[in-house]
Amino acid sequence: MVTALPPLAQLLAQWRLDALGAAFAIPTVVLVVVAAVYAPPYLAQERYRSESPRRFWLAYALFAAGMLAAVAAWDLLLFVASWEVMTLASYVLVAHETSEAGATRAAFKYFVMTHAASACLLLAVMLLWAEGGALGFDGLRTTLAALAADRPLLLHVVLGLLFIAFATKAGLYPLGDWLPDAHPAAPAPVSAVLSGIMVKIGLYGFVRFFVWGLAAAAPAVAAAWGYPLAAAGIVSAVLGGFAACAAGDTKVLLAYSSIAQSGLIALGIGAGLVLAPQHPALAQLALLGALFHTVSDAAVKALLFLVAGSLQYRTGSRRLDAMGGLFHAMPVTAWTALAACLAIAGFPPLTAFTGKWLMLQGTVLSGSALLVGAGIALLVASVLSILYALKFFSGAFLAGPVRAGALEVPAAMAGAQVALAVIILALSVTPGLWLGLLSGALPGPTFGAAAVPSGWGVFAVGPVTGSYAPLLLVVAGAWTCGLAMVAIGRRRKAPRAVRTWMGGSALGASLAPVSASGFFVPMREQMGGAYAGLRFHAVRMPAWVVPSVNVDRWVFGPAVRAGLGVGAALQRMHTGTAHRYIIWQLLGAAALITLLFVVRA
Amino acid sequence: MSPALGAVVWLLLGPALVLAAGPWLDGFGRRVRARLESRRGPPMVQGYLDLAKLATKEGLVAVTNPVTAAAPWVALAAAVTAGVLVPLGGATPLGFAGDMVVVLYLLGVSAAAVALGGASGASAYGFLGASRELLLLLLVEPVVAGAFLVVGLQAGTFRLGGMAAWELAHGPTVASVLAGVAAGVALLAYLGRVPFDLSEAEQELTGGALVEFGGRPLALFRWALFTRWLVAAWVVVEVFVPTPLRGPAGAAASAGLVVVLFGVLSVLSTLIARLRIDQARVFLVQIGLLMLFAFTFAVMGA
Question: Could you report the predicted ipTM of this complex, rounded to two decimals?
């Protein structure tokens, strides 16, 4: 059953970048380069002075190579090895600020959680290898089909292990709990790459194994696994959205938003798997929406993390309450942040709209009760993304007294932000072009059969189920402004600057402070604690709901306690007395011999 | 007329028509309210007169940044752009540019621009108004969008033309009637009319999110609000009660229905006292349940 490991020469031939890999590899290259441009001035800050730049750049290069290798590997073993390189290198980067205890702790949590996931991945790959006898991706479908026919239970075990591994990396609830700790701890350019691309590599795993491999080999099994994936996605999208609204720290807000966006993509992939057997056309829309959202969120989220880094660079804080009124002081950062915030809010004509809109079609129009429910939840998640995007932007740049001075970041940092903003605009106005390219990344017979829907132009997207032409909307809006300007007449004189009205009193702004956390006071009062610490009392949820969504309580707490218990037991065994070890050895040998006899018989 | 030519003509004329029609609804609504209160009321063109007066006033700004300056223009442009995507008299010349989801999102952009304007600067009143505006958006947007999705689900498309055609061909179903009622009731909140004018109630001491705006920016924000009233009422009419007439007759029939719907909404606004924000939440959650019933029926195929 077990075959010999392939020789080295054969191993090196096992790289292949197909269209699906390229859809992830190209954003990786772009983001890695942009973040590398941004990083040198950022790392020159006082707080990073004592850290070794060599360590950073070595880990950064390994991290980038690991990510690229993971999407280019055409072999299970290479995939696992690249995955591990990526994970270890990113751990070093998260822990870069060694003097900060919080960063070290967050990095440790990241290390433990992702390595538990890596162990699952390794186990799954070993099982696949042992069953199929081949390590190449070429044989993956055959192996999966054979497993589905002969040993369905083992197949589900393998898929479950893969699910845990990928969901942890993708930050899906509840396995993505490392994300809100690790992202704020890492330096901003690293957070940008972590959230922009590395989280998406987990989603690549889902697409490669569940969509590309499983859906072609065993459609029924793939459809069954689509449900948990979509469910995990929608829970992440809604809970992550609420948590992002509640966050007062820029990077924590963005980390929760990463969980939410990752959840939306997982929802699209899951819906595609569920729909593939009956509605291939809708499945294609859902999957294309997920892939497009992956690419667009890579740019948007990376830009937002860079903006958060720039804000920290100049204000020395990550708290939104400590900022405000920075528009004039940091114009380039503000404009790029505006593009990213409006994009992540999903406003047409900007980019995140396209992906959400395609996924909404895929889910709601299927008519399946569960998917329609997921579509409604997607709407709620979209509104939440509007709320936290506006909170982020107005909290940092608009609200509060205008901050004087020129606080713009150095040219390299500003340039990196502008480059990403340009990419976002390019993705925004030509959705048809990118969707056409991405449809080539969907696997052959299962999803390619529906072909590209008609009316798929460069500037417009028009499947039978909807239509969207962003550039035309911009033209109509501009024409409207022109007409309104004519109708309303020319401005006679420039507006006069006055003081803010404070209710008629002469008190200063300090007595009626405006801050980002105040933005959500009415919401916090009205929505109860639906987010803040996940207290559901105001919407009168049963008492078990709140503890039941607390990951620490029912997953990580018991895991840590069990680990400590095992450790304590091991400690008790090691007393240091030699004869006790000899007894242990004799007992072990006896047990082994007994076992052998039992097996032989 | 070829489709391409029709699209270009509508792209040029549509915004002008939508811009011109919106303020009339303001005068009409105020006349309805005045009559119910046994007053004469202002002339029907009062909306235009108000805008013209505001436009000539001197601009006073407490916040000078490009985003705040652009917010009123964005609010107006997004609302009008949503308007030109809606079918008129059975024709959808620009139907390829955006479907129902795009229309709802553009109306959302318009509302968010108001909030963004209110949240800039150091005014605590404006900030509170913007915050309430967004809370209302969070509560009402899923309800209204969900009601439209019910018809989209039954028609198998989000294209407004296709939804209207399906509604005409299959008549009202249990699901679409329930969804229509939910959308109609939620429309009051969606448009920020009494009893849901929580963010800029005239009883309040302040002007809500727009407290810091005056003159031309305020005129543009008001204009955008009127346009949102028009477009939202119009899209509800076209999707839930489409007229079988075509051409100019169809357009006139739709316009008549829009006026009737807006009149009913104005009557409701006059008769119902303003709600507190927590009452509004309870109310909208209940309307949301109605929308979920509609979805259940739609999934069952009723």
Answer: 0.91
